[in-house]
Amino acid sequence: MQVSHTNCGNAFSSMLCGLALLISGASAPLYAQEAQEAQEAQEIQEAPSAPEMKQDPLPGLAPYIEGTIEAQMALEDIQAVTVSVVKDGEVVYANGFGMQDIEEGIAVNPETSLFRIGSTSKLFTWLAVMQQVERGNLDLDTDVNEYLDFDIPATYEEPITLRHILSHTAGFEDGGLGYLIHSYPDKGPELAVAMEKYIPARVNPPGEVSSYSNYATALAGLIVQNVTGVPFNQYVKENLFDPLGMQYASFDEPLSDELEPHMTRGYKRELGIWKEQPFEMINAFGPAGAVSASALAMAKFMQANLNNGELNGNRIMSAETMELAHSKLFSSDPRVNGMAYGFYEKTYNGFRVVGHGGDTMQFHTDMAVDKENNLGIFVSYMTTVSNKARNNFVGQIYDHFFPDDVEPIEPPSDFAERAGKYAGSWTFWRRNVSTIEKMFGLLSGGIDVIPTENNTLLVTGPYAPRQFVEVGENLFRQVDGHDRIVFSSRSGEGIDTFYFESLPFMGMQRTPTFESGLFKYLVPGIALLFFLHAIVSWFYKRKDYKQRPAASKSLTYSSLFMSIAHFAFVVLLAVVLIGFADSLYRGVPFLLKAALVLPLLSIPLTLWALFRYVKRFGEETFTVGRRIYYGLLVLAGVFMCYFYFYWNMLGWNYYS
Known about the structure:
24 strands; alpha+beta; 17 helices; Beta-lactam/transpept-like; Beta-lactamase
C-alpha cells in the first residue's frame, strides 16, 4: 500500500495526462459530450447515465482524476476502472473507464457496473458486528467461543475476543491454500462449515501483535449470523445495503439474476488478447471479501460513514457507535497509526484517514474516509497485472489537492551508537507456520534494516529501498517522505517487533535463523549443485562406475538415487510455484501432490546413502578426495531432509 507521488502532480504533467486521456481511447466521464461522441463513433453500447452531480468543491478534480486514471490504464495495461468521490455530503465525482463487458460492448457505468472490492468488503462485516454490539447481542470482550458451535483451541490462557478480531490481533497464522478462492461454478463449503474446518493455528497470544487475518474476519461474519439467526449475506443486505440505498451491492456468489448482467467481467491477457476469466467465488470466507459493488453504491457507504451512520434519513447505527468504529483500537505505538474497529488508519499529508483496501486475483480496490476534510474516495481496478495503481491513487489525490512539503531532518550524530539494535532481517507475522503453506515463505524475501554511514536506516521491501531517520525513541521517519516505522520490544529483551506505519495490520518479527537467506537459498543452492554434479557425472562415468568394487558401487548408486530424488523434487516444486502461482488458492494441483511423494522417498534414500558412506569410510581404497566429496554429498542430502521438515513439505498437511 505504498503511497507515492503522482506523475500528474503539476500543471504541465496534468496536461500530459489529459493528452493521454485523448490518445488512449478508453471511456471518459459519462457526462462528457466528447466521450459520448467517441463511443457512438465506435458503436459502443451506451451505459445508463449516472445521476447529475453538483459542481465539485475541489477545482480541477475531474480532469486530474481522468488524466491519472487514463495514464495508469495505458502504462499498466488496466482493462477497467471505476471511481467515486464524496465531499461535504455530496457525490462530487463518479466515473467509469474502460469496458464492463468487451464482447457485449458495455462501457463501465459508475452507477450500475459492479466491481469485486475484495477485502474492502470487511468494512461491512465490521459495521455488522458494531450494530450487534450496539443492540446488546454481542460484547467486544467476551470469549468468541461463546458465540460459536465449535471451539477455537485454547492455545493460550487468554481467549480471543471480538476486540482482538477487529484489530487483527487474534494471533492466528495465515492460510488459504486450496480453499480461499474458487472459480465459478465451483464453491467452497458454507461459512459455518468452513470456519470449523479451516481453523488456523494460534501463533501469538491475543492482543500482542497485529497480523491480518481473513479467517478472523469471516469468523466475525459467522458470529453475526449466529446471534441474529439470519444468514450473513441477508443480514448485511437488510441492515446495511437496503437502508443506505445500495441497490448495486451484494455479498451473494454467484450474483442474483438481477445483478449478474451488471458485473464487470474479469479479463486477463492470453496470447496478447483479453480473455474473460471465471467469476471469483469467496463464499467460504465471504465476510472477508465477497462484495460486488458499484462506485456510486460505495459513495453512499462513504457518505454514511462521514455522516456518522446516517444517510437520507436512514440510520444504520448511532453516531456514538460509528465514532467508536472509527476510533483507534490498537497500535504498536501511540505515536503512529494503528487499527480502528476493523477500519485501518492511514495518514496522507497530515490528514488522518480510515478505510480499507482490497484485492482479489482480478480486482484491486481502495476506499478512504477523511472526516476532517469531509471527504471520501473510492477506486476499483479490473486488472490481473498488479495492485500498484490502487495503492497509489488516494495518495496521489492528496499530493495534488492537499500538498504537504517534506521537512528535512538532520540525523542525530550519535545514532551509530544504537543503530545496531534495529539492524537485521525481519519477517511479517502474517504467514503460515503449521501447514504445507509454510513453504510459500520460500518465495518471499525478508525485510532488511541496514544502518548507513549517514546515520539513517536503509529499509528494503515491501516497498523500494528507502532511508529513515530517527525522530524519537524507536521511531523513524522516511528521509524524503512522510511514512514512518516504529520498533518495540514485546519480550523486554531487545528490539523484536517492527511496523511500517502505512501497514498497521502487518507486524513483523526478527527472521528466524533457518529462514534467513543463508539457509533458505544459499545452502540449498549449494546442495542442488552437488546433486546435479552427481547426476551429470553418472552419464559420462557410468562405465567406470560399473567396474568399481561392490562397496564403492553401492555408495555411488545410493548417492545417485538420493540426488535424483532431491533434485527432481526441487525442480517440480519450482514448476508448481511458478506455473500455478495464480491458482493455488483455488485448489491444490495434482502436480504438487505428486511432487510431495519425492521428499518422503528422499529420506530413506538419504539414510541408505549415509549408511553406505559410514560403512565404507574406513576402507583403505576410499581415497581422501572421495571421502570429502561423498561426505559433502551425503551431508547435502541430510540438510535437505531437514529443510523439507522445517518447511512442512513432508506429506499432504494442507489445512492443519
